[in-house]
Amino acid sequence: MKLLVILLFSGLMTGCRGNSSYSLPPKLLLVSFDGFRADYLQNYEFPHLQNFIKEGVLVEHVKNVFITKTFPNHYSIVTGLYEESHGIVANSMYDAVTKKHFSDSNDKDPFWWNEAVPIWVTNQLQENRSSAAAMWPGTDVLIHNTTPSYFMNYSMSVSFEERVNNITTWLSNSNPPVTFATLYWEEPDASGHKYGPEDKENMHRVLKEIDDLIGYLVQKLKMLGLWENLNVIITSDHGMTQCSENRWINLDLCIDRSNYSLIDLSPVAAVLPKINITEVYEKLKNCSPHMNVYLKKDIPNRYYYQHNDRIQPIILVADEGWTIVLNKSSSKLGDHGYDNSLPSMHPFLAAHGPAFHKGYKYSTINIVDIYPMMCHILGLKPHPNNGTFSHTKCLLVDQWCINLPEAIGIVIGALLALTTLTCLIIIMQNRLSVPHPFSRLQLQEDDDDPLIG
Ligand SMILES: [Zn+2]
């Protein structure tokens, strides 16, 4: 009992020390490498990233949201919402009421983003705090009339080093201090599309470059004295799967183009009928055995992808590795966007810093769980969201959690202790009891052993 009290007390003390050791207010840098499929970590070497993980935490799979595309998932990370709730439901969208179009090169209208409040806005509403961003989707848009205090207009030609230099300068020298920062990089997504994830040689080269960039980032943070007190999350929006020209679904073979507008193409096509919806649906329904065709009302609940006007009346979902085309070639050897229950669509998450445990591995969280965790680290009150804070408790030093193997260990340990205790009590009782002169005789009477009988 004494031991238990001491253990509990020392645990509490450690918890308190954990809290006070990070300088106030806590700071967080959120980094995304686009299209970093979870199992790249097992299949390729990442010396710098593995060092980062060794001193921090790793979540091997992050279950992202449907559709598994870049803009939607990046917005889910920073809002904790499913796509139907935050409104960025695809990389290409059309709003039938306002007749507005959205694409990754035409994304600056706040109209598209204002259905949710990203964490960089919430962070800046706190007294004496600012946010900074190097090209995370949405950070160069006036969302709820606010941009991060420091941000870069999106341009894919700006190098990773320049993005890191800006972010680290802002994290070092700003007043009010930058407490939340984001950093985005287009690889390995671009190469994943170009070569396909099964092209080991090219992917090896690209992933080594990414690991070197992580090395550069960590070195820079150390050099500027930011490393020890900064919480850093490295994650991604989605994975990547191999495609092939032998797996094309040609819509032109099933329906005339004059019958519909195609808002988004592959692997989840968004179809806006120009004629009767049922007629278009009937033509598409049996177009390919490798494609599911849904009327909006029949989209499976598990996708959380229905209740938003920007989701079109019919969506087509290709099977993994299949590409929806319009009677023309597609040069993509890799793609994403598919069913979010496919492991190939999942990214990973690694984190390091005073808020996180050291050397801890965890199997799965949801991408929407990242937001409440980040709010907790920064001491922000989260907006209503679809994430679950308790899913990430095991990653954090100031939270108490038991994972399944530990729980099983504790139960088995308790049972063993109880059994041992019971045995000991029985043995002691036998030893202490006064010897009974007739007991041995009685035992022999009951014994069936023929040698004795
Ligand atoms: Zn992509």
TrEMBL record:
CDD domains assigned to the protein according to its UniProt record, in alphabetical order: Enpp (cd16018)
Transmembrane segments: 407-427
SUPFAM superfamilies documented for this protein: Alkaline phosphatase-like
Signal peptide: 1-18
Cofactor(s) required, per the database record: Zn(2+)
Localization terms from the record: Cell membrane
Single Gene Ontology MF annotation: bis(5'-adenosyl)-triphosphatase activity
PROSITE patterns assigned to the protein according to its UniProt record, in alphabetical order: PROKAR_LIPOPROTEIN (PS51257)
Catalytic reaction annotation: P(1),P(3)-bis(5'-adenosyl) triphosphate + H2O = AMP + ADP + 2 H(+)
Protein's GO biological process: blood coagulation
Keywords noted in UniProt: Blood coagulation, Cell membrane, Disulfide bond, Glycoprotein, Hemostasis, Hydrolase, Membrane, Metal-binding, Signal, Transmembrane, Transmembrane helix, Zinc
Enzyme Commission (EC) number: 3.6.1.29
GO terms under cellular component: plasma membrane
Listed InterPro entries: Alkaline_phosphatase_core_sf, Phosphodiest/P_Trfase
Membrane topology summary: Single-pass type I membrane protein
Similarity field: Belongs to the nucleotide pyrophosphatase/phosphodiesterase family.
Function: Hydrolyzes extracellular Ap3A into AMP and ADP, and Ap4A into AMP and ATP. Ap3A and Ap4A are diadenosine polyphosphates thought to induce proliferation of vascular smooth muscle cells. Acts as a procoagulant, mediating platelet aggregation at the site of nascent thrombus via release of ADP from Ap3A and activation of ADP receptors.
PANTHER family documented for this protein: BIS(5'-ADENOSYL)-TRIPHOSPHATASE ENPP4, ECTONUCLEOTIDE PYROPHOSPHATASE/PHOSPHODIESTERASE
Protein name as it appears in the record: Bis(5'-adenosyl)-triphosphatase ENPP4
Organism: Marmota monax (Woodchuck)
Biological classification of the source: Eukaryota, Metazoa, Chordata, Craniata, Vertebrata
